[in-house]
Write a structure and sequence with these properties.
The chain has 134 residues and is mainly α. The protein has 5 helices and 2 strands; from the N terminus they run ααββααα. A hairpin with a 2-residue loop joins β1 and β2. The chain is elongated and about 55 Å long. The mean pLDDT is 94. InterPro entries: DUF6326.
Length: 134
């Protein structure tokens, strides 16, 4: 598998994990009751919050495509930036709200995947510095 295909596949994998974790969260009756009030774990779920959440989810979704179509040099940097942002955000979310075992499970998978993408992209960047990233 070439680098672009692998990175795209990893973004598909992590995106499904983000989405399924959110879906399971909606099955959690204590959280569902809060969603219906518009306030979850003390955070107000308003249109601006949902807009920012949409931006955060668009990062891995767009990386599925960008990993396949961007030229190598842009691809490396996009993967480094996107994986850094998503890893950082996921680590922060572990300290927000109440602990649930299902969230910790998915968060561990998501963080490991985006850290792998980050490391793999750094390795690709270093290889590219030895050989042109054309």
């Amino acid at each position: 598998m070439n680098k672009k295909d692998l990175l795209s596949t990893l973004w598909i994998f992590v995106t499904f994990n983000y989405l399924y974790c959110d879906l399971i969260g909606l099955m959690d009756s204590s959280l569902l009751k809060q969603y219906l009030t518009g306030k979850v774990e003390g955070m107000e779920i308003n249109p601006l919050f949902l807009f920012y959440a949409g931006i955060l989810m668009e990062i891995p979704i767009s990386m599925i495509l960008f990993s396949r179509i961007l030229p190598n040099k842009s691809n490396v940097w996009a993967n480094i930036l996107a994986s850094f942002i998503k890893t950082f955000v996921m680590i922060i979310t572990l300290f927000i709200g109440s602990f649930t075992i299902y969230y910790a499970f998915f968060a561990a998978i998501e963080i490991m995947t985006t850290m792998f993408i980050f490391g793999y992209s750094i390795k690709w960047l270093r290889e590219g510095n030895r050989v042109s990233l054309l």
